[in-house]
Amino acid sequence: MLFQHSKDRLVAISDGVFAVVLTIMVLDIKIPTGALSPAATHTLLQEIFTYLISFAVVAQYWQYHQELFGPGIQVPSSLYILNMDYLSLLCLLPFVTGWLKNSQTSRYAALAFAVVIALVDLCQLLMFKLIIRANLRPDQSLANHDHEEYRSAKVMVVISGLYLLVSLTYPHLLLLVIFAGLIFRAGTTWLLRRMTATA
Amino acid sequence: MLFQHSKDRLVAISDGVFAVVLTIMVLDIKIPTGALSPAATHTLLQEIFTYLISFAVVAQYWQYHQELFGPGIQVPSSLYILNMDYLSLLCLLPFVTGWLKNSQTSRYAALAFAVVIALVDLCQLLMFKLIIRANLRPDQSLANHDHEEYRSAKVMVVISGLYLLVSLTYPHLLLLVIFAGLIFRAGTTWLLRRMTATA
Amino acid sequence: MLFQHSKDRLVAISDGVFAVVLTIMVLDIKIPTGALSPAATHTLLQEIFTYLISFAVVAQYWQYHQELFGPGIQVPSSLYILNMDYLSLLCLLPFVTGWLKNSQTSRYAALAFAVVIALVDLCQLLMFKLIIRANLRPDQSLANHDHEEYRSAKVMVVISGLYLLVSLTYPHLLLLVIFAGLIFRAGTTWLLRRMTATA
Amino acid sequence: MLFQHSKDRLVAISDGVFAVVLTIMVLDIKIPTGALSPAATHTLLQEIFTYLISFAVVAQYWQYHQELFGPGIQVPSSLYILNMDYLSLLCLLPFVTGWLKNSQTSRYAALAFAVVIALVDLCQLLMFKLIIRANLRPDQSLANHDHEEYRSAKVMVVISGLYLLVSLTYPHLLLLVIFAGLIFRAGTTWLLRRMTATA
């Protein structure tokens, strides 16, 4: 058989798309013209804050993607399609971020943001499921770390449901809630690892 | 001989171009301003639909490209030029997609889209031909899977002829026809694989 | 020693820059609005022609870069800086192409284009020199193919001098001359290889 | 354990981000329209100068990054997060460069530029620290070259403090000072290597 799937290239195209998505989000920060009035400063800081949060959101997805297709993992052929679906949704993040930033109080923008996050999270969970099924031998059980990552992918789907609720009720708080979520998750992970390390 | 072609780099530049093409197409979705009137919602949904279809079109090309230059394939030196021709046409897809989206009823835009698709498909078929000729030993015949992929590349050229016809007669239906084509092809592949698996 | 240069990464960053440069040039093609008048058609065709030529110019540089840092080549540490200088000039190509396209009759735009081409060619020749010096053992002489590539790099510097002359005298013909040059070089290479193959 | 960090991908995403950052900075050079008046020429040269300096700044960061994660280096898992923080700050460089260019005399723009440089430098120093700690065996001491690189990372933090001072006092000189700094550092390195080589 000449034509075979190449895991290296699945990883390469994904990293390429991640890199462009991460970088083009900075183009959304408008360069201030003239003196920095208090209002202009407020807008600028809000734009930088939005950029940093959306960067963190995409960076977090990359962290999981990078482990999901890590060294030693066998990638089943269905993942080649599913990963593209995942990337097509991920590429929508700069768009919904830009929309959210331009109209922080709009329910539609917040809803669009939350829907895209929810779809990416679902896609990610499905990829976890298929990769685990393809790589775990029947007599094997998930290692602690793998279990933790899988659970994280599930928690992210639940949290994205929460984002949907927030976007429908307090749309202007969505970014703050996502920010709090990132801090909370980072803190919990750090604490759990510290506890495991000392245990 | 110091200077030799590097297949790794042919693959790297191709994945880089694919990644940028996939990602910049999202920049074409205009961020809605103000409240979402029914008309604005319609435009937005149409833009997202166009984005998803063109993403799927490029992703499909990547799937074939990835197998075409997969592990174990010897790349003849003529392919180094031909692959660049292929990429130069592929890069035109964001442009023709943007044009088609802005003037869904224009025959010119639909024709330009169909012509670019047809040229990319022809280039792809030629690459299949040259790669197979360079990698198949005289006493060897194509494996089932390879045969299937090669036939797909031929079918895509035929279908692009159909797109040309549609663009000349019902230009406003082109995207829907392409969408139907993608669904049809995905369904057929899935069915054939299922039948082969149970056979 | 912990910290060492990584040839893999020199190649990766170069391919990344090449991929973005190749792709963003298509963003310069303006999407036609409304019906295609003869004048609009002319502008559009001119833009596509300019895009294809500048793509071919950059693709040609990539062909040489790819062989220059091919498998088995030892990269001296000075090349890590020089390659970045080369890339910084290469990145100017979308800018000078855009300028040239917007003012096809302007001597300044043509001159800027020719100067950038000349600088990239000089940089390329210097890289060839340093790579050959670092990789050729004293008792070794260049293989035929290597000699041919090295000579090509020299010829490109000479041709860029010609472009400078054209830009100062017939600026509106520059793109056509570059197009003719590409065709001429491709034809000569093809002929030479054919003659060598039959000899 | 199925899911493991992949150093290859940390390097790939970083090179991808570096490549896009390097390339999109050229989009900031505005294409001159009409004849080149002395004022327009001045603006154009200033824009090209700004582009070349910011390219050199980012290229310098890449040089260190490339050695920092070079072949043979073990990457501790905390670096996967820290590297993303580093990249998120690095991506701000096109924005602050654009701002600085548009308002060369503005204290705010110069301050923003200097703050981003200082943060990237701090991040870089921290990465050096953690990588050295994770890779140096207790009985080992840093090789001369490693020591030199580590000291450079420290010097860059000190210099970024100087940039902060300049941005507060003579904001319009910031780019020139950075340019002088690049030349000075390049000259010193060259001199030191020459002296070491002849010693």
Mean pLDDT metric of chain A: 89
The stretches of 5 or more residues of chain A where confidence is low (pLDDT under 50) are none
Number of helices of chain A: 7
Distance between the termini of chain A: 51 Å
Q: Give me the secondary-structure category of chain A.
A: mainly alpha
* Strand percentage of chain A: under 5%
Tell the overall outline of chain A. globular
Domain count of chain A: the total is 1
Largest interface summary = A-B, 33 and 46 residues
**What percentage of residues of chain A falls in helices of 4 or more residues?**
over 70%
Taking all Cα atoms into account, the compactness measure Rg of chain A is: 19 Å
Query: What is the β-strand count of chain A?
Result: 0
Describe the largest sheet of chain A.
none
SSE string of chain A, helix = H, strand = E? Answer: HHHHHHH
Multimeric state of these chains?
Answer: homotetramer
Organism (chains A, B, C, D): Lactiplantibacillus songbeiensis
Subcellular location (chains A, B, C, D): Membrane
Pfam families (chains A, B, C, D): TMEM175
Membrane topology (chains A, B, C, D): Multi-pass membrane protein
